[in-house]
Amino acid sequence: MTDKNLVCKDCDSQFVFTEGEQEFFKEKGFESEPERCPACRKSRKEKRSKRGSKEKNRNKLR
Ligand SMILES: [Zn+2]
């Protein structure tokens, strides 16, 4: 495997999907590549964890 250059869906910046990350994705059973750069992934995670206190709303979001 080699490092891959991907373009973030959210901010259109390029980021590297490293060999190590690809391994990690495979291990987790993810078949698709990440669509967002680490920064956007992180900010999404933070948003989600803030919402996490309102568990009831989760079903509405999906
Ligand atoms: Zn991004």
Automatic annotation (TrEMBL):
<feature type="compositionally biased region" description="Basic residues">
    <location>
        <begin position="39"/>
        <end position="51"/>
    </location>
</feature>
<protein>
    <submittedName>
        <fullName>Cytochrome C551</fullName>
    </submittedName>
</protein>
<dbReference type="Pfam" id="PF13451">
    <property type="entry name" value="zf_Tbcl"/>
</dbReference>
<feature type="region of interest" description="Disordered">
    <location>
        <begin position="30"/>
        <end position="62"/>
    </location>
</feature>
<feature type="compositionally biased region" description="Basic and acidic residues">
    <location>
        <begin position="52"/>
        <end position="62"/>
    </location>
</feature>
<dbReference type="InterPro" id="IPR025306">
    <property type="entry name" value="Zn-bnd_dom_prob"/>
</dbReference>
<feature type="domain" description="Probable zinc-binding">
    <location>
        <begin position="3"/>
        <end position="48"/>
    </location>
</feature>
